[in-house]
């Protein structure tokens, strides 16, 4: 007799958890709930649910999350500078602090009117970057909002554009390669003038007669483990706090076993992006790296495995 209510209870509990996950996965927040301006407050324009950051000949602008996070998913919807955006860079990134910081970057490099925006990504581990990849998107990112996300757990970091993976940084600690999973990260975005390098190798300069340059944001989502910003806690405590654990039954969605690697569909998407849209990969830049960076060996391996 008592079995039925118990099972029903379990079932209801399951449904409830499912709903809670679904709700958490789609809840978007207002800018002020998660972020604050970090510089040039007078270059912020709030228009209903939209936030616009302005770059002119006086200043760019930037914002930062109020909290720091470990693991999970962070997404913004972004519409890039319309028309002539040459010389400008709009960045969306996660970063920890200090000389040995970790960082995941999206940098959107402007272009002259009609020429494609480029998306440069980079990964810093223990203060070292030099892992640039570049692609030209399969749509015009200035015409509409598109979502740009970081998914991060202890197995991998995935960069996603409209949920399509464009880059994966895999944990290869078993081969002695450090992986960024011991530092809480803030979430940042900014727009600034970088005409010394951004567009066509720095040959095309910012045309200030076309200012202001405006990047527009909406629908901020952070579904991640929040870490106390002022904390005396050790790294081990932070990692533990944000990891699922069998001892106390704590479970985080990003630790689900199926999120430890790309799904087959995702690895096909990534292969498509790399084949059709990638214009630069540090892994194949033999002039810059006569010896292939260690983590790149894995990239080419993934490709071969993915073809099966
Ligand atoms: C910035 O641009 C405005 C409008 O074109 C111009 O009046 C002003 O002198 C410029 N300021 C600087 C610092 O270049
Ligand atoms: C800008 O357009 C040129 C010409 O189409 C292209 O080669 C380049 O990759 C584009 N992006 C940047 C950032 O220069």
Automatic annotation (TrEMBL):
A Pfam entry, by short name: Glyco_hydro_16
Report the SUPFAM superfamilies cross-referenced here: Concanavalin A-like lectins/glucanases (SSF49899)
Q: Which domain of life is it from?
A: Eukaryota
* GO MF assignments: xyloglucan:xyloglucosyl transferase activity
Instruction: Write down the Gene3D superfamilies for this protein, in alphabetical order.
Output: 2.60.120.200
Where, subcellularly, is it found?
Answer: Secreted, Cell wall; Secreted, Extracellular space, Apoplast
The GH16 domain sits at: 22-217
Question: Which top EC class applies here?
Answer: transferase
Q: Which InterPro entries match?
A: Beta-glucanase-like, Beta-glucanase/XTH, Beta_glucanase, ConA-like_dom_sf, XET_C, XTH
Enzyme Commission code: 2.4.1.207
According to its UniProt record, how is this protein modified after translation? Contains at least one intrachain disulfide bond essential for its enzymatic activity.
Q: Provide the leader sequence positions.
A: 1-22
Task: Alphabetically list the UniProt keywords.
Answer: Apoplast, Cell wall, Cell wall biogenesis/degradation, Disulfide bond, Glycosidase, Glycosyltransferase, Hydrolase, Secreted, Signal, Transferase
What this chain does, per the entry, is described as: Catalyzes xyloglucan endohydrolysis (XEH) and/or endotransglycosylation (XET). Cleaves and religates xyloglucan polymers, an essential constituent of the primary cell wall, and thereby participates in cell wall construction of growing tissues.
Q: Provide the family line.
A: Belongs to the glycosyl hydrolase 16 family.
Q: What is this protein called?
A: Xyloglucan endotransglucosylase/hydrolase
Q: Show the taxonomic lineage.
A: Eukaryota, Viridiplantae, Streptophyta, Embryophyta, Tracheophyta
Whichever gene encodes this chain, its name is: XTH6_6
